[in-house]
Amino acid sequence: MTPKPETLTAIAAEFGTPLYVYHADTLRRRAARLKSALARLDAHIHFSVKANSNLSVLRMMHRLGFGFDVVSGGELARLQTANIPTGEVSFAGVGKTVPEIRRALAANIDYFTVESAGELARIAALATEMALPARAVLRLNPNVDAHTHKYITTGHAENKFGLDLDTAATLWRQFSDHPALTLVGVHLHIGSQVRLVEPYLLAAKKVLAFIAARRAEGFAVETLDFGGGFGIGYDGGDDFSPEMLADALQPMLAGQSLRVVFEPGRWLIAPVGVLLMTVQYVKQAGKKTFVVVDAGMHTMIRPALYGGEHRIVPLSPAADASAVVCDVVGPICESSDFLGKDRELPPVQSGDVLALLDAGAYGMVMTSNYNSHPRPAEVLLDGDRYRLVRRRETMDDLLAAERACLGGDD
Ligand code: LLP
Questions:
Q1: Does 253 lie in the same domain as 115?
Q2: Using an 8 Å Cβ cutoff, are 272 and 362 in contact?
Q3: What is the distance in A from the centroid of ligand 1 to the CA of 154?
Q4: Ligand 1 mean position to 112 CA, how many Å?
Q5: Residue nearest (by alpha carbon) to ligand 1 atom 7
Q6: Which of 240, 268, 296 is where one domain is finished?
Q7: What is the pTM of this model?
Q8: What is the pLDDT of residue 35?
């Protein structure tokens, strides 16, 4: 049920490249699997908007029955712009500003995920001032190793995320009878692209002990948010198994009367998207072959930033040709501007379209205008119909914010 290469070729011809294409059938299939796996925990799923915040993608997620986890006022504004109700929205992130908190209170979101004492005090004060109720969960740092890349591990003691368990216990006591703010539960997020179930179980154990201790003090704890982090097989291998996680967590959570929440991003949306790019030049330098394409670290930064390895395939591979080892690189003036290194590709030539796979998460959302390239367009393919869900940026888009400030010639 992956899109046919001919369809992608037609889409690339119509809309140009670099281009993100999302496949609705793949999303529906993954959503159904995740829901059925987590149903045995009666879990709520808040899609992590940071992974892919396209308005049309968010609408699809809403229609599939998911809530949302946001990390900025901008992400909340995206939901509101897509006319998505904000009742099932959690708001995470270490740096929530006053305007962002105000926007979330006005939107009556489900709860804030609180990362520090200062933030909790700020939310309580703003809720009091606005005479609006605030609900919050405390993000605990369970200090477990998620065995993932160091830039995307978050549940370790030396990360900036969450509260150590003692600080969280003190805060709970301090804010237990606040008139405007209710502490409804706890949150954890151990990292991203996690492939093992074990770290979740270790973290769950610590967090359940914390919950038991608060309940023993007489406080009500109703929500346990496990964050996101489910990994995928970028190399074509197995994805993280939500079924195995649910099986292992079920006995631990039985009888706990907890409302369980997960916030997956990547697992749901990464395999839904491809990045299409056109070969500009094939350049020989000594023994090395460089395939220069019109995408790069400005259109997909994961390889440059994390050494992320995405499969890259030509849409119309030359028949019976032997593979060539090459680096697929972009136009940006940085040596880290590569999409794949030492890849075996069938011989390609200028004009060929390549697809970089599993690009639906942390792709478009991490694009930049570096070297003054306009951002790519996005297309949603549903059955055999497709449509633009974000138009390509124009040179005018690129220049508008500065042109307005340019003043006269002198
Ligand atoms: N919840 C919280 C609080 C998070 O910080 C994150 C991701 C998620 C949920 C969703 O995690 P996921 O299910 O997608 O793994 N740009 C990096 C990933 C950064 C993830 C940051 N936090 C990448 O491209 O690999």
A1: yes
A2: no
A3: 9
A4: 17
A5: 192
A6: 268
A7: 0.96
A8: 98
**147 and 70, same structural domain?**
yes
Q: Is residue 46 part of a domain?
A: yes
In this structure, the residue with its CA closest to atom 9 of ligand 1 is 228
Handedness of CA 390, 393, 398, 404 (dihedral sign): negative
What pLDDT score does 339 carry?
98
Res 89: pLDDT: 98
Longest dimension (CA), the chain: 73
DSSP annotation of 107: T
Q: Residue 16 domain-assigned?
A: no
Q: Which residues line ligand 1 (CB under 6 A)?
A: 48, 51, 69, 92, 152, 189, 192-193, 227-230, 263-267, 302, 306, 361-362
Residues 209 and 140 placed together within one structural domain of the fold: yes
Alpha-carbon distance 294 to 70, whole Å?
31
Please indicate, yes or no, whether residues 114 and 177 belong to a single structural domain of this protein.
yes
pLDDT at 158: 66
Same domain, 242 and 317: no
The Cα angle at residue 170 between residues 165 and 175, in degrees rounded to 5: 125
pLDDT of residue 152: 63
Give the structural domain span for 141: 24-268
The DSSP result for 389-405, as a single string, is EEPPP-HHHHHHHHHTT
Among 249, 380, 357, which residue's Cα sits nearest to residue 310?
Answer: 357
Residue 13 confidence (pLDDT): 98
Give yes or no: residues 221 and 288 share one domain: no
CATH number at residue 294: 2.40.37.10
Buried b (16+ CB within 10 A) or exposed e, 357-378: bbbbbbbbebbeeeeebbbbbb
For the chain of 410 residues, list the mean pLDDT of each consecutive stretch of 10.
91 98 98 98 98 98 98 98 98 97 98 97 98 98 78 65 94 97 97 95 96 98 98 97 98 97 98 98 96 98 97 90 94 97 96 98 98 98 97 97 85
Last residue within a domain, chosen from 216, 238, 268: 268
Alpha-helical segments (H) within 114-265: 117-130, 165-174, 198-216, 242-253
Q: Is there a domain that residue 17 lies in?
A: no
The answer for residues whose C-beta is within 8 angstroms of residue 253's C-beta and 6 or more apart is 41, 204, 224, 260
CA distance 402 to 67: 37
Q: Which atom of ligand 1 is nearest to the CA of 187?
A: 3
* Whether 305 and 383 share a structural domain: yes
Q: Is 405 a catalytic residue?
A: no
- Total domains in the chain come to 2
Whether residues 136 and 180 share a domain: the answer is yes
